[in-house]
Amino acid sequence: MTYDFDAMLQTIKDKQWSLADIEWDAPGAETMTDELRAKMQPFLADLVWIEHVGARGFASLARKAPTPVVREIYEYFHAEEQKHANAELALMKRWGMLDEDGSIPEPNINVKLAIKTLDAFGDSLPLSALATLIPLLECALDGALVKFLLDEVSDPVCHEVFRHINSDEARHITVDFQVLELIGAGPMHRLLVESASNLKPQVVLGLIVVFVPLINKMRDNIVAMGLPEQKLYNAVKRFRTIGGRGEYTHRIPAYHVLKAQAAMVIDRSHPYHRLLADPMVKVTSFVPARILGRPQTWVDEVTHEPVAS
Amino acid sequence: MKILYGDEWRAFDLTGLSVGVLVPPDQAARIVPAVVGSARAVKVFQDSPVWVVPVAVPRVGPVVSLARLHLRMAVRDAWTRRLLTPGRFGSREVVVSPSYYRALEQPHCKLVAWPVYAIVEHGVRTAEGIEHRLDVLITANPLGKAKAA
Questions:
Q1: Which terminus of chain A faces fewer neighbouring Cβ atoms within 10 Å, N or C?
Q2: Which residues of A252-271 are buried (b: 16+ CB within 10 A; e: fewer)?
Q3: What is the mean pLDDT of residues A238-265?
Q4: A120 close contact with B: CB closer than 8 A
């Protein structure tokens, strides 16, 4: 049975929400203790950047979408990820985690490298690679990071915001996997040709120099902040389970590559860390940010203000 | 927020006002250069972009190449250029306007490419979660009236 993307697009339009719907001054901000603030500030800054960079990923997906309806859905998802980044920044503002001008904290070098890669190659990455990567990141975000945040923070406004965000994310994950089904159902020769084109130097290099250390640094940062590794394990298991339920997803080579990589990432004792990921984190930490140049202006578009004049 | 339909904006003094333009791209290319001079701020809500050429050219030959070149020359910011570039399911329409991109480049003019999902009392809400406050909204669609809260 083919999936009804038109109905999903309508649902997405019907479920829109705005930062202006949230009462940002409502009581509950006092539940953020100094100790919790110090612990959650870097976590939330990472989270805002993940959403913001994820949003840029959807912008590239929209360019590659297999049908006009899927393109429109991705355009909404691009905006919704941006909305999540905006809402999380507004929570940081509420909890006094931002400096006076309210700007987003500077990202680490690995996020900067990811931004640079998206600016340079984002729109030329093959559909199957990007379409597989995004649901994996969303499973991790939704299944591990957000659950961790909600376990730690009791502020009712935070829980209200994440009810909206989780409802959006559930639709993102549904569509992401349905698109994988659509791609996987295509002719095998096309999948193979596209997969071979994934082996372009910028993709392979991007994966090793940008993606591997980015994910590992985030992983270690977040585990150090107290995220139980079991949650990461469950998130990757979810990616495998939903992907495995599909009839055609298993035909996409990129799905198997990322599934295998994800399994290595969550297992800290795997040689992947010792031989590849940890050295890459170390090497990239020596990259001076200034050689990357100024990122494109989408990077500046995140805001904690619900209303723009 | 005052909503102006169709050509009503022509008879309206926009001096010093914050103006939103929510119309199909061929009309935006005509309206934005005309209002950007008097309005205090202009936000152009774009559904999907079309190719723009500065002068009328025959619809044969490399019209898209000309439009691409025009965009490259007229708009400095790479991300804005991307937002103004039609995608593969984009419209095949080519609009003639010598001044649309120049108007968009004005410091008080902003292109908003996020999907618009509601017109509310004081402005327009877009899917990135922000309410854009406006004094006046210029729109082509009288159905917008039904949506207004």
A1: N
A2: bbbbebbbebbbbbbebeee
A3: 92
A4: no
